[in-house]
Amino acid sequence: MFSKLAALTAIFTVLPMFAVAQSGTGDATFFNPGLGACGFTNSDSDPIVAVSSQIFNSGLCGRQMNVNFQGRSVTVTVVDSCPGCGPGDIDLSPSAFSQLADPSVGRIQVQWNIV
What we know:
- This protein is α/β, with parallel strands linked by helices.
- It is built from three helices and six strands; from the N terminus they run αββαβββαβ.
């Protein structure tokens, strides 16, 4: 049976293998939030983001992300996973998306980084 120290040592030895992507590029779309995978209930007006499952599983709940598009920027909080997103793609709340582009565009190519 492992001691607490041995268990923690094992966890922190393995964690670097699952390093969080600190920045990326991809498509950004928007969604109508509700109860997210992090356990928070949000609304359309909250500055939030859902990230691809590939990077969500690295422990991003509650982390801040800067998202940039054509000279505009918004800071959002990771609250959900986006199973349909590609590795660098994100899904923004309607209010966050509208700070970057008109929602009628539907999909934009963004750059993002974890703060």
